[in-house]
Write a structure and sequence with these properties.
Layout: H1 2-29, E1 40-47, E2 58-61, E3 64-75, E4 80-88, E5 99-105, E6 110-116, E7 129-130, E8 132-134, H2 139-155
């Protein structure tokens, strides 16, 4: 009987470890956090094209996640997309002249906002707008431009 109990205990432990691993995977895939709240502040950035950027997409600086996208909107006057970024309070020293770019990560094409720090001695605060932005690279546009250039080069022969 003790042998059966040891096997049951081992199977039970294996199931608990598997469930914990699934929970961690769900948290990572869902861009959720399980850490304590240090406060945060929101800034905005305007882009010509946000591509497939979504709410809850990561905001990173130097490869470190410092926040997430909490809102996406459209300005009917300037025809620009407005991304609202929530930055963790631990990262309160982001220079005011920093720039924001939309990049694609991984094989699945998840898009995120990358902030490149500037050199200003003043820092971004709640409600500020990041003035320097670079829109998402649209793969279809790049392929079309490449094919057009190839076709134009072939016409001259």
């Amino acid at each position: 009987m003790t042998r059966d109990r040891k096997i049951e205990a081992a199977v039970g432990l294996f199931v608990v470890i598997g469930l914990a691993a699934l929970l961690m995977l769900a948290v990572r895939v869902g861009n959720l956090t399980l850490q304590t709240d240090y406060g945060s502040y929101r800034v905005t950035a305007r882009f010509e094209n946000i591509g497939g950027l979504k709410v809850r997409a990561p905001v990173s600086m130097s490869g470190i996640r410092i926040g997430q996208v909490v809102g996406l909107g459209f300005d009917p006057e300037t025809y620009e997309a407005i991304a609202t970024l929530e930055i963790d309070g631990r990262f309160a020293r982001v220079p005011a002249d920093s720039s924001a770019s939309i990049f694609t990560a991984g094989l699945l094409g998840e898009q995120y906002v990358s902030i490149s720090p500037g050199v200003d001695e003043e820092f971004l605060a709640a409600g500020d707008e990041i003035g320097l932005t670079q829109s998402a690279m649209i793969l279809e546009r790049l392929i079309g431009r490449f094919l057009f250039d190839k076709a134009s080069a072939g016409d001259g022969d």
